[in-house]
Amino acid sequence: METTIPTEPRQGTKHRLLLIGSVLAVILVVAAGLLYFLLGTGKTFSLQGVRYLEGTFDARVLKELSLSGSQEVLLPVPGRVIDYARAGDSEAAIVLLDDAVQAVYVQTNGEWRAVVERPGIRGGLSLSPDGNTLAYAERKADIPVVETPLEFYDPASWVVRVLTLDTGSEAQMGDGYGTTLFVREGALHLAYGAPLGIHIANLVTGMQDTVPLERGGFSKVSTILSSEDGTHILIPSVMGDYELYLLKEIENNYVLERHERQPVDARAAAFKNGQIFVLTTTEGNSMFGTAAIENSVEVSLGEKKPSMLVTKIIP
After folding, report:
1. Taking the CB of residue 154, how many other CB atoms lie within 10 A of it?
2. Most buried of 54, 56, 128, 274, CB within 10 angstroms?
3. Could you tell me if residue 26 is inside a domain?
4. How far apart, in whole angstroms, are the C-alpha atoms of residue 164 and residue 88?
5. What SS3 class is residue 26?
C-alpha cells in the first residue's frame, strides 16, 4: 500500500496558523504604540513606581505613579502615614496613631515593626542609601505648638536623631529639621537644616560643620535633599521652589555653590540615580517630571497630578 505524505498543511491548520500570526501582529503593534506613546508624551518609565505624599497634615495620603495614573499605597501599619522614606530594600514611615502618638515604623526583610513609640511630634524622615540608617527630627516637648508653618518648622524647635536599624542604637544630634543621609567618599554623612545654616556630620569620623546660608538675611532651612553621593543639594528658596547647589569640600570645610542650571519652578523634588524628580508647573498644570542633575533645566514631563498639595516625592 502506498502512503501519501501531505506537502501542505490541512485547511484547518492553515486557519489556526493565520489566526496565531494575526494575534502576534496585533500584540506587536500595541506594544510599539504603547512605547511610542510613553516616549512621545514624556510619560517616562523612570516615573513609574515613584511615590509621593499628597494632602495636608490632616488628610495626607501616600500614592504611587503607574501607567494607569496614580494609586493610593496602603502600608501594613496602624494609624495614618504622615511621613515616608525608602532606600535599598528598607522603608520607613512616621505614623499618627489613635492616641496622637507619632510612632516610627520601619520595614526590613519584608516585615514592618515599630522602632520609636514614645510620645512626641516627629518629621523630616530620611533613610541612608543602603537603608540601614534612619534619621528624623523630634519636636522639643517644651516648645508650644504654633500655627504658621514657618514658625512650626523652625529648626531651633526640633532635635535631630539618628537610628541604626541593625543594632537599634540611637544618637541625638543637634537642633534642626529636614534630615538627609548620603555616602561621600565611602563615609555615611548626615545633613539637616540648623538654626544658622546647614549642618553636616560625618557619622564615621565624627567631623561636623555648619555651612552658613545667607539669602537676603534668611538663613533658616527646614528641608534638605541630597544626591546619594552628597555632591548635590536641593534647598527650598525663599519663594518656595527648590534651588540646586554643589556641595564642595575645601580645606576640610564644606562650601555650598549655587548651580548654574536651576530646576524651573520645582515645588517638590527628590534625587535618585543621577536624576532629579520634580513637581513643576507648566501651562497652568502641575506635572511630575525628571531631569539629569547636571541639566536640571531640561525636565522631561510625565504624569499630571491633581491640584492638591504634594509635600514629598519618594523615588
Report:
1. 18
2. 128
3. no
4. 14
5. helix
Name the one residue in this structure whose C-alpha cell is 493565520. Answer: 18
| Residues 6 or more apart in contact with residue 72 via CB below 8 angstroms | 61, 62, 63
What is the residue whose three cell numbers read 535599598? 88
Its domain, for residue 219, covers 46-314
The answer to whether residue 34 is domain-embedded is no
Give which of 268, 271, 276 is closest to 312, Cα–Cα.
268
Amino acid at 244: L
Share of the chain above pLDDT 90, in %: 50
Distance, in Å, from the CA atom of 147 to the CA atom of 141, rounded to the nearest integer, reads: 16
Nearest-angstrom CA–CA distance, 77 and 259: 40
CA–CA gap between residue 200 and residue 234 (Å, rounded):
14
Q: How many domains does the chain have?
A: 1
- Angstrom distance (rounded) from CA 143 to CA 270: 30
Q: Give CA–CA dist 221/193, Å, rounded.
A: 5
pLDDT of 70 over the 60 cut: yes
- Phi, psi at residue 238, to the nearest 5°? -60, -30
The neighbouring-strand residues paired with 76 are: none
> CATH number for the domain including 162?
2.120.10.30
pLDDT category, 75, cuts 50, 70, 90? Answer: very high
Whether 102 and 117 have beta carbons less than 8 Å apart is answered as no
Residue 259 inside a domain? The answer is yes
pLDDT digits (tens, 9 = 90+) for 114-153: 999 999 999 999 999 999 999 999 999 888 877 677 788 8
Sequence-distant (≥ 6) Cβ neighbours of residue 131 within 8 angstroms: 86, 87, 88, 89, 90, 108, 165
Residue 55 CB neighbours (<10 A) = 16
